[in-house]
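Q: Could you fold this chain for me?
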Amino acid sequence: MNTLNLLSQKQNIRKTAFFIVFFVFIIFVFYSDMIKLAVNDSLKICASAIIPSLFPMLIISRIMNEIKIPDIILRFVKLPMNKIFGLSENCFQAIFTGLTGGYPVGVKNAVALYKNNSISLNEAQKLALFCVSPGFAFAVTLTGSCIFSNTGIGIRILIANILADLTMAILLKNNKNADLYKKKTAPIQKPFSVILADSITESSSAIISICAWICFFSAIITLLCSFTKITFIKNLIILFSEITNAVTLCAETKNILSAAFCCGFSGFCIIFQLLNDLNFLSVKISSFVFSRLFCAVVSVIYEWLIISIFPVTLQTAVQYKHIRLSKYSVIGSLALLFMCAVFIISSSNEKLKYSYDNKT
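A: Sure. Below is the predicted structure, expressed as structure tokens.
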């Protein structure tokens, strides 16, 4: 009976999901002009800010996952990792790249380390809950330099978010030493050319996925905001939906604390991007959302303390919304070259994989 009830519930959920998707499709058809403008603006943002700031960090983090960390570094971080966070030294790689590389990097690195048998499932679950920092690329380059026109603001937001995530890590500490992963497996030694090609190809796929999510959520935000004239509701939709639009709104209102909160929460756009990884690690979505809300609140506290000690002045205008692309622009040319490079690298990567598999 329980099995039949579960099957009927799944069928009902699928029927409901179908009608919801069909309803959204009809709305998209009627508001196609509005959606086109929203996606167009999002593509400009991706080409001018998201790809240049995040793409290199994705490549570096994936290369670091494939290359073995020197033993001298592991011995240096072993004691603080075990005593402070209750994690093995193998988790240092995911923590470092997750707190400095950007939102998708930390959770995806935790999944990669777990698949390689470098860390336990318990450790991977902990990493997924606190390795969700905006990173240097988003916080400093995008939020600070591009949106707030002040690099110092981005640095303060990054520090506040890292401190909040580390606070979350300490609270998640498990004092049972049995949970520490003792098994060490030698990673498969690949030629650096294969590692580089794999990293660029996987990062290209990841950055395209990130930009697609940003465009989709920007369209959803635009539609939802068009259905209400209440400014407070519009601001809530923007602040909790997509991080790029959220910090832009914070910059327009000159509210650094709100920007720190948004960077700490990350937005439902980032959460939806990580659903597959969270399901793979058996992390409850409710637990992940709660951890993001906790880090968001704590980051506001740290941000207030940092601003109180190190005051900062805001610019009178936000230059981020005045991005323009033309057929003669440097950004447009680089975007086209980037897509061509993705195609060439993807095709050559298959040849490298084939030759490497034959040798091994």
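A (continued): The chain is about 80% helix and 0% strand.
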